[in-house]
Amino acid sequence: MSILQTDIQYVPGVGPKRAEILQKEIDVFTLGDLLRWYPYRYIDRTRIYYVHEIDSAQAYIQLKGKITAFETLGEGHKRRLVAHFTDGTGFVDLVWFQGIRFVESKYKLNQEYIVFGKPTLFNGKWNIAHPDIDPFMNESDRPEGLMAMYNTTEKMKNHFLNSRAMQKIITAAFSLIKERLPESLSPDVVQEAGLMPFHDALENIHFPKTPSLLRDAEYRLKFEELFYIQLSIVRYASERKEKLKGFVFGKVGESLHTFFREHLPFELTNAQKRVIKEIRRDTATGRQMNRLLQGDVGSGKTLVALMCMLIARDNGFQSALMSPTEILASQHYETFTRMLRGMKVRVALLTGSTRKKERELIHAALLSGEIDILIGTHALIEDVVQFRNLGFVVIDEQHRFGVVQRARLWEKNRQPPHVLVMTATPIPRTLAMTVYGDLDVSVIDELPPGRKQVQTLHRYDKKRGALYQFIREQIVQGRQVYIVYPLIEESETLDLKNLEEGYLHIREAFPEFSVCKMHGRMKAAEKEEVMRRFVNNEAQIMVSTTVIEVGVNVPNATVMVIESAQRFGLSQLHQLRGRVGRGADQSYCILITPYELSADTRKRIEIMTGTNDGFEIAEADLKLRGPGDLEGTQQSGVPFNLHIADLVRDNAILYRAREIAEKIIDRDPHLAQPEHLVLKQQLSRLAGNRYDWGRIS
Ligand code: ADP
Ligand code: MG
């Protein structure tokens, strides 16, 4: 057994009582767990401040001086011990609420102490609550370098497990370690990445001798964390590629040529060309493609999908396009038939509302191979839907489809078809590499020329007059308007009430126009009907919850008003904004908030009014929120347990870790070489605490 597996209670200074708290509060069960409870920051203890230098900007500081008097103040739970402390340049009150008797007997008047803590201003006086106090020794005996600070919970603090106590326990843990800890990465990785040895890294992360040793230790531990995530992804992907054969789309044939020469009304953007090339390369290799296609709304993803389906057809395969709603499926169907008019490519639409007769015809035509492209909703993954030779599947707006549904698609042919997942919700590259690490990613990062950028404005909710005037002008010019109300998750009834009130209010404010409303509790058929009315401009204003977020295309709608915009996350705001700006006219997105806003909300609004770039927004979102609640994170199933690395700050380390993980798997796909045994062991250890989502949210 490794020393790292020592039960935490046997570390000197811990014992059964504290062990229980450490287990419950911070999941520390073993000595190894304890050493991976990394400090959250460091304090430079080489510098001693003067009292007269203290200002509100300082966090933790050290002072050198004497206690001139003790005083007990207050009654009951407000009872506290105050020590008047001075260094000759001013006075500070040191304050204790607990352990009063102990403190009073321990520290002596008029003796030199080093006091360490965080000064706060209270009744016009500086005070430091529960400071660390050490007798002043010779300069040469003072602790050198950086001192680690540890996060502790309220409950831990109540049991005197504060940062200082954690530091003592960790010191004690090191005293148990008699031999150097074995390396947790293989020698080739350590060498290739130029890493500090594991043992030294642990020592220096807790007791850094110099800032530069600390940097090396941090790099090493972050690298290791990210490396194992990447290694498990790369290994999984490589195994899958080994096992899964894919259909070969070897040639570019007649339908793609014809389409390209005679049907394509515009030039492809460079980004579209690049993505088509990537897909062609993938589908020609004999491996099964699993690719995520990201691109803002309107960047031309659907067109790319269509062209790939023509490639499939030229190679004797059928294709399917799956959409989250019937409306979207019908829109795709219309687009496809329009663009392919005059060609021999046969397209069919299959949704929940397809009549039985027609449905049967479609089923038969799919089996006989008469249909080349099937467009539909979930209806098309049902078992009765069988193809003659399905080779290519496109999933639009991935987050509506789970892994299980994808798997059912795979069973529709003797080997799985190629899969292209399209999403307009950009995922920052670092997160995509981690969460969707086994998918290949293509990006369309360029809009077709001549698009008008949506103008985004911020307005306060007390000033509606001008806004309504503006809406009126737009509608008079023939445009349409969305007004979105937030979902407040605590109560659906409240949400509906909100929406209902909004709806009545808007109807009153715009009696001359027709207003419709939509929310998630409505039946699918009702929603479709409302949507149809809006698409046909029978209603000019749509009042809605966020159900309209996904994919609807109404080019004539030019105004998106978002009520209580402070309640929405960045990616949601961006997604909603994507509902306008789809036609030739200038479009607007108007964010409505109260006057009082938190700093974070202001930041979000600023980002929204400042950029239309989905990737920039996704990066900002990741920075503001952390990766925990980003869409898709929960589904991934990638072991993922970050103690020290940060997907935003440490992206350079992440790329390096990925690169080296790929090299290792290239050289030794099954990690069979003896020197890679340690990698294999660590991977299975990691898989043991899989799905530890709590840590990242
Ligand atoms: P997405 O699926 O990414 O939202 P679409 O493929 O639906 O985007 O394209 C949006 C609109 O832009 C469509 O009307 C499409 O015909 C048009 N479009 C696509 N590619 C181009 C291009 N290269 N040049 C001009 N218009 C394009
Ligand atoms: Mg689309």
CATH architecture of the largest domain: 3-Layer(aba) Sandwich
What is the C-alpha radius of gyration, as a whole number of Å? 31 Å
CATH class of the largest domain: Alpha Beta
Distance between the termini: 33 Å
Shape: globular
What percentage of residues falls in helices of 4 or more residues?
A: 25-40%
Q: List the total number of helices.
A: 23
Main beta-sheet strand count, sense and barrel state? 7 strands, mixed
Q: Which ligands, by name, code or SMILES, are bound?
A: adenosine-5'-diphosphate, magnesium ion
Secondary structure category: alpha/beta
Parts with pLDDT < 50 across at least 5 consecutive residues: 628-639, 690-697
- Roughly what fraction of the amino acids lie in strands? 15-25%
Number of strands: 22
CATH superfamily of the largest domain: P-loop containing nucleotide triphosphate hydrolases
Number of domains: 4
Using the coordinates shown, work out and report the CATH topology of the largest domain.
Rossmann fold
Structural key phrases:
Rossmann fold, DNA polymerase, domain 1, binds magnesium ion, 697 residues, disordered C terminus, binds adenosine-5'-diphosphate, OB fold (Dihydrolipoamide Acetyltransferase, E2P), 4 domains, alpha/beta, 39% helix
In short:
With 697 residues, this protein is α/β, with parallel strands linked by helices. The chain is built from 23 helices and 22 strands. β19, α18 and β20 form a beta-alpha-beta unit.
